[in-house]
Write a structure and sequence with these properties.
Layout: E1 5-7, E2 13-15, E3 17-20, H1 31-39, E4 44-46, H2 54-64, E5 72-77, H3 86-97, E6 102-107, H4 117-129, E7 133-139, H5 143-150, E8 159-163, H6 166-169, H7 173-182, E9 185-189, H8 193-196, H9 203-218, H10 224-234, E10 238-241, H11 246-254, H12 263-273
Length: 288
């Protein structure tokens, strides 16, 4: 199955679902997980300097036997050492991952660059102009952070990766308005958190009701996670997820061929999610 793509505002395309090497793989050897993900159909790999496993991410790419052109690789800028720039930091990442370029390079945390975001964004543009990355973007940027860099950007961010699920969707509206204006793709991490970290919330019966309907329509099993990932996909969101289990990895990719949610079902998830404001990664966002 070919993974479908989303158009970026710079003319490139990005696979709609990515295998992430943070959270469960943070500071751990990612080689086997990456190889398993690629073997089971993932083409988009989402890493970061702060995850401290770019070297083993690269090992996984080598072990997979896939050519570089068949894969979409993302990494993220962490804290800069004295004298370093986004470009020089990316050169180090490329060396660790054993690749000549990445497809997407994101500023991981605005809190790492307080008072310097505009300068850092210009450095991201330099890295792109140097051919080290095809696209550039941001992560954990609020609407205010975006407005700040857009004042000076000659290249707008292609992606903003944020915690995104129904319990924060209402709070993300100021972000989403800017994303729409500049054709910035919204990318989600923690998208399944309402199922795994938020059991017992108002969404539970709604997800079950929709899952049952989808199973009848499909004539095959549909999981709770597929319901939420389908909701994200139909919102045009780039989903970042992870698992150490081959069957779960295949299930994530299989979401693409799960029947679509109706407009009413999407609205029901929206309105039910808005009843509870819950972040599962509060350290990545300013106090609300």
């Amino acid at each position: 199955m070919t993974v479908s793509t989303l158009p970026l505002n710079d003319g490139h395309q990005v696979p709609w679902i990515a295998f992430g090497t943070g959270t469960a793989l943070y500071q751990k050897d990612a080689e086997e997980a990456i190889r398993l993900a690629i073997d089971n159909g993932f083409t988009h790999l989402d890493g970061a300097q702060i995850y401290d496993n770019e070297d083993t991410l690269g090992n996984g790419i080598v072990a997979s036997g896939k050519s570089r052109s068949e894969l979409f690789v993302t990494t993220k800028l962490g804290k800069l050492l004295p004298g370093a720039t986004p470009k020089s930091a990316l050169q180090e990442s490329l060396r660790r991952m054993k690749v000549d370029y990445v497809d997407l390079y994101l500023i991981h945390q605005p809190s790492n660059h307080v008072g310097k975001l505009k300068e850092i964004w210009k450095g991201m543009e330099e890295a792109q102009k140097a051919g080290l990355t095809k696209s550039i973007g941001v992560s954990n940027f609020t609407a205010d952070h975006l407005k700040s860099i857009l004042e000076i950007a000659t290249i707008p961010p292609a992606v903003n990766q944020v915690e995104a699920h129904p319990y924060v969707w209402k709070a993300l509206q100021p972000n989403l308005a800017i994303h729409d204006q500049y054709k910035i793709v919204t990318s989600s991490y923690g998208g399944l958190s309402p199922l795994f970290r938020g059991k017992g919330g108002p969404l539970d019966p709604v997800i079950e009701q929709i899952r049952t309907r989808l199973e009848k329509t499909r004539g095959a099993p549909v999981s709770d996670g597929q319901v939420l990932n389908k909701w994200l996909q139909q919102k045009g969101v780039l989903v970042v997820t992870t698992s150490s289990k081959a069957d779960r990895i295949r299930e994530y990719l299989d979401t693409q061929i799960v029947p679509e949610l109706t407009a009413e079902e999407i609205a029901l998830i929206d309105t039910t999610g808005a009843k509870l404001h819950q972040r599962y990664f509060p350290g990545n966002w300013p106090p609300e």
